[in-house]
Amino acid sequence: MYDIRIVTVLTANDNGSQAATPSPKSIARSVELANEIYNPRGINFLFDAATDIYRFNDDLLNRDCRRRDHQVYTDPQVEPGSAPEFEGELFNKHRNEVALRFPGRVMVYFTAGSRYAWSSTQKRWVYGPRGYSWSNHFDEFVSMAAHAAGDDLLAHELGHYLHLPHVFWHTPATIEAAAKLIRDFVANGGSKDAALSLFEGDGISDTPPDCGPALFKNQCDPAETSVTIPVTFADGSKRSYTLTPDRENIMNYWDKRCRGGVPHISAGQTGRVQGALHQGNRRHLVEPAVLYSATFGAGDRGQTRAIGWALNDFAKRFNDELAAGRRCVHMQGYDIGGGQIRYDGVWEKSSGVEQTRAIGWALNDFAKRFNDELAAGRRCVHMQAYDLGGGQIRYDGIWESGGDLGQTRAIGWALNDFAKRFNDELAAGRRCVHMQGYDIGGGQIRYDGVWEKSSGVEQTRAIGWALNDFAKRFNDELAAGRRCVHMQAYDLGGGQIRYDGVWESGGSNGQTRAIGWAFNHFVGRLDTEMAQGRRLVHLQAYDLGGGQIRYDGVWEKNGGSQQRVLALPLSTFADHFDELTSSGHHVEHMTACLRSYGLPKATSDQRAVFFGSDAGAEPAVLSALPIPPLTERDPGCDLQ
C-alpha cells in the first residue's frame, strides 16, 4: 500500500477577499471518497484536518491571471489570460514554488479567485470567480474550486495529478453528431475499424471508449449500459458502432454513484499511476524524504559525487575514486528509515595525498583501526557515527597521509567523561579537529572527539547547551575575539535540541551566526550575509520532529562568491550539483537531512503566514515546511 499525504491550502486575495472556505469536514470527506476508489488498487491518501489545512492570503495563489480592464475580449475561441500581459505564467510558477515546499505531499489548493470566463449573455470574456477545478501531470499541485469539497471531484483531479488522462476524447451531444464525427474521420483517411478511437482518451487498453453521458437516455439507469451509433458513409455503406463505457471509472464525466456503484480505476490505470510514482515526477511522494543542501565556491576542482548510495556500492565507488587519484572531501552516512543507511561522497583531485577509509565498522573494530592508522603515520580527516537502529552504532573514518600531528581520540564517551577529557586535551596543548554527539538510544548521548597538536592555538568549548544559553555563549566568544571552528545540533529526544561548539583564538574574522532558523528566514539571511561579503563556513539542517526543519549557519569575512541550494530532494539536488560543478564550481559544504513524515501542529487559522516571500531565492530552491519559529528561539533571530 502506498501512503500519500495530502496537504491543503485555502487561499484568499492579499486583502482577504474571495476567500475559499470549504469546511475541514468536507475536505476530509473528499479524501475518504478518494480512498474508496484508490485503496483497492493499493493507494491510500493520508489527511488530518487538524494539521493538514493551511490558510494563505496571496493574489498569486488565489487568482489565475491579471485583470486588464482597458480591453474587451469578444472572441469565444480565444481565451484571454494566457498572453504575457496577463502574467498567467507568473501565477502558475508561484503556485508550483509553494507546492514544492512540501516534498512528499500532494499540494491541493482550494481557491475562489478570479480568472476570465466566457459569458454567453454578455457575449464576451468576463473577469470573475473561477468555478471549476483542474489538475495535470506536470504541475506540482491540484487546483480545486472553493465549492468543490465533499464529493468525488478531488479523486478525479488526483487522478490527473497521478498521470491519468480522461478516458474519453470527443463527447458529442447527439447520435447524429457522433455519426458525423465518424464519417469525417473516415473521409479524412481514417480506418472504419479504428473509428471508436475518436472516443478513447487515455490509450489504456482496459478502459473502453467513452462518448460521455449525453447520448444516453438516462445516465443513472443501471440497465442502459450501451449506445449504438448508426453511420452511413459517403460511399453508401452502413455500419453501426456500439460503445459500452465504464460509467463508474473516476476519470470520466459521468455521475459515478447514481447507479449504486462505487467509482474505481482499472488495472491499467493503476499501472500508469505506479509509473508516475516510481519513474515519473511524482517520485517525491514515495521516495525517502531526504533533503539535501549545499554551498558551492568558484573554481573547478574536478569533483565527482555519489548521493544516496547503499553500502556495498558506495564502498566500491570509494575505492574506484581513490584508484583514480582522487581524495574524498565530503562523506556522510544517514538512515532513510528502518536502518537503511545511505551514503554521500564527494571526491576531487588529490594532489598526491593518499587516503584510506573504513565504512560501517563496529566500535571495537573501529577503535583498533583508528589506532593502526595513527601508527602508520596517517591522520583522521573525517569521522562519523550513526545508528543502524536499536542502538547499533556504526562508524566511518577517513585517514590520509601528511605527517604525524600527534592525534588522539575518544570514541563513544558519556558527557561528563568527555568534557573532562576535552579539558585534559586542551591542557596538554592539543586542539579539537573533530567532535560529534549522537544518541545511542533513549536519549543517551555519546561523544566522539579527535585532537591534535595545536601550534599555539587556544580553544574553548560548550557541550550540550540549550538554545538560548548557547546563542549567548556564541556571542560572548565572538566578542572575546574567538571564531567558531565546530558547531553541532542534536536531539536528546522529543525535540529537545542541544548544541555543541568549539571556538579558537586568532580573531573572530567577522563571524556572524544563525541558530535554529526556519527555511524562509534562513534563505533571506544567506542572501544578506553574501551581499555583505561574508561566506558560509558552517551549515547544518536538522529535524525538530514532525518535519520541522531548522538550519544553523556561521559566516565570516573570506571573500569570493558562493552559490547555494537548500532543501532539495535527491534527484533535483543531483541535477543542481552536476550543473554547478560542470560550470566551474566546487562543493564547499553539503548536508543531507531526513525529514520525518507528518506536518507540525499549527495553532491557528493563520498557519500559512509562515510561508514568507523568499525574496531573492532562486525559483528552483525548494523549502522545508513553512512552520513557526522555535519556542526557545535564538535571541539573535529577530523575526517579529
From TrEMBL:
Protein's UniProt name: Uncharacterized protein
Pfam family, one: BTRD1
Entry GO MF terms: metallopeptidase activity
Organism of this sequence: Actinomadura rudentiformis
InterPro entries according to UniProt: MetalloPept_cat_dom_sf, PGH-like_rpt
